[in-house]
Amino acid sequence: MSDAYSPVPGLNLLKEFDDRIGPVYYSEGFELLEYGEDADLDTWSEHPEFLSRFIPFARATRSGSNYALWRCDDRTELAALPVVLVGDEGDLCVVARSLPELFQLLAIDSEPTSRGFPDPVSVEEYSDGHQEFLIWLDQNFGLGPPEDLDAFWAERKECDERFKTWVSRFVELYEC
Predict the structure, then answer these.
(1) At what angle do helices 99-106 and 130-141 cross, to 10 degrees?
(2) d(Cα 86, Cα 58) in Å, to the nearest integer?
(3) Which residues pair with 85 in a beta bridge?
(4) Helix or strand or coil: residue 58?
(5) What pLDDT score was predicted for residue 119?
(6) Considering only Cβ atoms within 10 Å of each terminal Cβ, which end of the chain, N or C, has fewer?
(7) What stretch of H or E contains 14?
(8) Distances (CA, A) of 159 to 24, 53, 93, 94, 166
(9) From which domain of life does this come (predicted)?
(10) What is the DSSP code string of 91-147?
(11) 5 and 35 Cβ atoms separated by less than 8 Å
(12) Strands 54-59 and 31-32
């Protein structure tokens, strides 16, 4: 039996980093949960098909929003699945087309909304572990914060529209 945090190598690397730097934030509001832990998805819908398509793995905000991988198809590479924001204030949307894209968004060091992330330049104060996270992200994935956040956010729009079409079979979505 494996002691790995998850079956996703990238998440395992993040968990090792998280354990190493201790109880400090490296991205505003982000906190790993137990992989697959309940993310209150049943408050959206109790339909088995709906619930079986999500793999929660992290808290997205300090107020209780979560991140989950969306099993949009049968791909075996879990890190390539879209990442969904399961918001505590009614947000349910794709925030990244893959786990590495989410890591890039975490490099902004700001809490997400369905409308996106603020520009990194507007972040006034960074989390204590932010600089270490940027180094980790570059060393492990060769990535940093998105260079053009508007373009980055627009690129995930098609995936989000596909998600909203699928999820509307189970829940009523609110326009933000």
Answers:
(1) 150
(2) 10
(3) 67, 93
(4) strand
(5) 59
(6) N
(7) helix 9-21
(8) 32, 15, 9, 7, 11
(9) Bacteria
(10) -EEEEESSHHHHHHHHTT-S--BTTB---GGG--S--TTHHHHHHHHHHHHS--S-S
(11) yes
(12) antiparallel
Q: What is the pLDDT of residues 84-103, one digit of tens each?
A: 999 888 889 999 999 999 99
CA distance 141 to 139: 6
Does 75 have pLDDT greater than 80?
yes
Two tokens, residue 13: 């690397």
Domain boundaries, the chain: 9-167
pLDDT at 55: 97
User: What rounded mean pLDDT belongs to the chain?
Assistant: 90
CA 82, CA 100: separation in Å to the nearest integer? 10
3-class DSSP state of 52: helix
**Cα separation of 85 and 94, whole Å?**
6
How does residue 125 score in pLDDT terms, banded at 50, 70 and 90? confident
Tokens for 130? 């932010």
Residues 12-67 pLDDT 10s: 999 999 999 988 999 999 999 999 988 888 888 999 999 999 999 999 998 889 99
Host H or E run for residue 66:
strand 66-70
Q: How many residues would you count in the chain?
A: 176
Model pTM greater than 0.85? yes
Instruction: Give the relative orientation of helices 99-106 and 9-21 as an angle to the nearest 10 degrees.
Output: 30
